[in-house]
């Protein structure tokens, strides 16, 4: 089931994707369940928004693909390497990624994102998938030059617009056979099976929950494969995960 958050007639609401229409939900499904209003809206008449705006946090995993760690000259971590992105960095499909004037090397990083569905702390690996509401697509935009000079990643990863999410949340997704492709102006830059992750989704969730209490609507980014690179104003970046859709954003300068 695909859940979208959208704007229609100056109202923001949620719906279940059913072909070319959205079945309108009575509230946020993370908190109100899947009760419908009975209304249906054509997808062509709405503006899709980020499918979730985390009330608490976005937790991300660095260097979770060996080839990506290698391309940046980094060692593979012994456990998931965590950092945070502020919820103010979240934008939706079609929104502009703003390249900050402070950076001359802003890069894309296509990723699978996990949306948490219930409060979770110290979750066992074998129980980890039970706290998942669904999955969506993310672009972990990074000011690579600032990441190098700052010595930590908060600013480089946390600018406004640096966490595109979307286009929808899929509540049922085949992790074992998933794959990711990132295109810059139509040219494939990243392509890898999700099985190439060093730490899989249950391991990531369990590890994150040791440090942070996970809340409904929290998002976990699972890392990016090799092929990351810079983009310029006017460029179009597409991250595709079959079964989840395509997250497309264009870039502009601040």
Describe the structure.
The chain is mostly beta strands and 254 residues long. It folds into two domains: 47 residues, SH3 type barrels; 196 residues, Alpha-Beta Complex (Fumarylacetoacetate hydrolase, domain 2). It is built from five helices and 20 strands. The strands form three sheets. Strands 1, 2, 3, 4, 5, 6, 7, 8, 11, 12, 14 and 17 form a twelve-stranded mixed β-sheet that branches. Strand 19 and strand 20 form a beta hairpin. The radius of gyration is 17 Å and the shape is globular. The chain starts with a strand and ends with a strand.
How would you summarize this macromolecular structure in one to three sentences?
By secondary structure, this protein is mainly beta. It has two domains: 2-48, Roll (SH3 type barrels); 58-253, Fumarylacetoacetase-like, C-terminal domain (Fumarylacetoacetate hydrolase, domain 2, Alpha-Beta Complex).
